[in-house]
Amino acid sequence: MHYTWEIANRYLRSKRRTGFISLITYLSAAGVAVGAAALVIVLSIMNGFEEEVRARIIGADAPLRVETFSGRPIRDWRAVADTIRAFDRVEAVTPYILEKGMIRHRHYTEGAVIRGIDPETVGDVNNLPEMLVTGSLAGLDPPPGSDEPAGIILGRYLADVLATAPGDTVFLLSAAGMTGPFSQPRMGRFRVTGVFESGLAEFDQVFALIGLHRAQSLFQFGGDVSGLDVRTTTLEDANTVKQRIDERLGYPLRPRTWFEMRKTLFSWMQLEKWAMFIVLSLIILVAAFNIVSTLVMVTLEKRKEVGILMAMGATRREISRIFLYQGFAVGVSGTIVGLLLGYGLLSAQLKWKFFSLPSDIYMLNTLPVRMQPLDFAAVGVVGVLLCLLAAVYPARRAAALDPVEAIRYE
């Protein structure tokens, strides 16, 4: 190992006449550790919330959705579904109908987004069956010739607004087929067979689920559907499958991935993550300024030693390297301690869940955490680089010393 590192290490450990300087050095390393720990903790929590939101949105929708550019129904959708189902990285396909309507229960009337689903295949694509608070999907499409009304499943908050409970009868009004001012809306009678809760107000406040065949009849779709939901092997595979659909099927079909359907939301979450990364990096920057002041004081304290080293033949680059090594050592030690501290606290949260959340507000009972190695690596690199840059000025100042002036009065 080069002797400059040995000298830098001795300067860091020396306490005989530089106890105060050593204290500032330790405080600087502690500041770097706190900054690094804060960064990885905040980034991991934001990753946890992003993953939770993404899982809930995709759980209620799908990784990939196929519609038409004009918004018109897809004709011969079974052939389209069979073609997509044969693609690699496609696990399941289910049809749906998406229309707007009005739901009436007693003297309560509320607008809603009506989603017609296939009870047999919808669970293969998303997590709607798992979101049911009460009831099941079995009663949505009664057998042909049955006298029982078709079933409907309401979002939790929509059910509260309508003051309904499973077993109640509601009426669904559709504007489909209205051609003039004296036309009457189509109306269907449904029995509430369940309530679902996704944890997202976007779905729970406005969505109502009915059977696909009943939706085709009510909205006059015939045998057509609004689109197809596609489940891919992984979320990243959605882009690949989208390209295959464009190449194989083309116009008028319009496939959209989970990111494109919620581009504003996920782009904002990514921007927020970068903003928090930059803001919290200022903690490390403050610690880096402490390193500057520490090394400047070390330069003044070790003025005689630096002069002697230069008189013995040490080059200015080697003198500069001594102080760069000190800044590097403080940065590495502080960053490693901070990363270990952050990892320990995050692991404890995952294991013991000591930070809880009100489930009626966040739909979560604990603070979500998702640790990513890339975040830890980015924080480590930023921490070390900032401390190394902070040592550049003191290193240059030490290298610029005149050895004759440094040892003249010694």
Would you kindly provide a brief summary of this structure?
The protein is α+β, with helices and mostly antiparallel strands and 410 residues long.
List the helices and strands and how they pair.
Blueprint: H1 3-13, H2 19-60, E1 64-68, H3 77-85, E2 90-105, E3 108-117, H4 122-125, E4 132-135, E5 150-155, H5 156-162, E6 169-174, E7 186-196, H6 201-204, E8 207-211, H7 212-218, E9 227-232, H8 237-248, E10 253-257, H9 258-261, H10 263-301, H11 303-311, H12 316-352, H13 359-362, H14 373-390, H15 392-399, H16 403-407
Parallel strand pairs: 3-8, 5-7
Antiparallel strand pairs: 1-9, 1-10, 2-3, 2-6, 2-9, 4-7, 5-8, 6-7
Helix pairs in contact: 1-12, 2-10, 2-12, 2-14, 10-12, 10-14, 10-15, 12-14, 12-15
Task: Describe this protein with a few key phrases.
single chain, 410 residues, alpha+beta, 2 domains, 6-stranded mixed beta barrel, 16 helices, 54% helix
Q: Structural class of the secondary elements?
A: alpha+beta
Radius of gyration (CA) equals: 32 Å
Strand elements, count: 10
Number of domains: 2
Order of helices and strands: HHEHEEHEEHEEHEHEHEHHHHHHHH
N-to-C CA distance: 30 Å
Strand order of the largest sheet: 2-3-8-5-7-6
> What characteristic shape results from the CA principal axes?
elongated
By DSSP (H or I, 4+ residues per run), the number of helices equals: 16
Mean pLDDT: 86
Residues in helix, %: 40-55%
| Major pleated sheet | 6 strands, mixed, barrel
Unreliable runs, pLDDT <50, ≥5 residues?
A: none
Strand content: 15-25%
